[in-house]
Amino acid sequence: MSDVTCPFAPSTRGLDEPDPVRPALRRSGPLVEAQAPAGGPVWIVTDAELARAVFADPRISKDPALAPPSWDPRVAGLEPPAAQQPALTTLEGEAHAALRRAHAPLLAARRMLAGYDQMMAIARELLGALGDGPVDLTEDFSTRYPLTVVCDVLGVPRDRVDDAIAACRGMYSDDPALVGAAMGAFADLAAAAVRSGDGIAAELAGRMPSGTTGDDLHYQLFALLFAGQLTTDPAVGFLVARALAEPGEPEELVRETLREHPPAPFSLWRFTATEIELAGTRLPAGAPLLVDIEGINGHITPGEQDLSFGGGHHYCAGAQLARYELQALVEVLRTDHPDARLAVSRSELRAVSPAGIGGSRLAALPVILR
């Protein structure tokens, strides 16, 4: 067992303060054993080459059915097993490939680029509605902007964005009843998107693999909505803080922000489907694995692809959507609000990380736009 400080403990640090845990993880080797949030051992990959091998290894699965039986799914942050609820994030093999084929053309770079002007229009409208004085962008904007974009892409009616925000917030509750209500709200939003026919939800409905149920379709749309908020919301804060302090093209600012503050600092859970050997360590079947994306990104060499959106056949399906909506935000900030600035010194900004494998976010981002 490694003696490094627990990488899953909650923390608060200055925006420019280095992570105190990840250097120790890396020094401990390419594969480090630690204590999982839900109990028992977890093995953390800290090396880029090994991470890419893990992402591509068919003996390593994302199906939560392989998780240790003692784990509380809520504590661990697990989705339902693939047999119970098929999903892009949990299926493997041909079932995953078929679902991926249904999604891929609808979320491809060309398709997302076609909606870039609309993303800019949304950013312009929402920023323009904010007051002249100091406003904390983490109070509403960092949630509302990405959710409005994702709702627009899917075809969720604009007057349902507040419902989407409420559903996302309900997912963070410790009360199972509130989480259940949020899932019901997401199903209603998904149905509304399909009925509207104004976005990719209706197209996805026609592309789903044979045998897909209405509930299955709604779950895929829930995943796009919730992931679109969960990951891009914190990225908005880090990106705006960077854009107000540094010159640079929007694409480069987005790339560097996501490299330094990846939406998921660790990969989603993976489990060995059989006994395997990694980096000289023999792992039993059912061993939990994580890739330290944030730590590895910090040592990516120039020209090397970072791991901000994962890798292998589970590479994030919404990566192009996230990149373009963040670029659109920077472009609107630069063109419409050239005098925008932080309302506090940069040294006062704080990045807060919750317990577990979730990403960090800014506790507050007070800015003056005009």
From the 3D structure, determine the CATH topology. Answer: Cytochrome p450
Sheet with the most strands: spatial strand order: 2-3-9-6-4
Q: What is the CATH architecture assignment?
A: Orthogonal Bundle
Task: Report on the biggest sheet.
Answer: 5 strands, mixed
Mean pLDDT: 95
Sum up the overall morphology in one term: globular
Rg calc? 20 Å
CATH superfamily: Cytochrome P450
What's the total number of strands?
13
Query: What are the segments in which pLDDT stays under 50 over at least 5 consecutive residues?
Result: none
Give the helix proportion (percent range).
Answer: 40-55%
Classify the beta-strand content into a percent band.
5-15%
CATH classification class: Mainly Alpha
Secondary structure class reads alpha+beta
Tally of discrete structural domains: 1
Number of helices: 14
Question: Between the first and last Cα atoms, what is the distance in angstroms?
Answer: 53 Å
Order of helices and strands: EHEEHEHHHHEHHHHHHEEEEHHEEEE
Please name the defining characteristics of this protein:
370 residues; alpha+beta; five-stranded mixed beta sheet; three-stranded antiparallel beta sheet; 13 strands
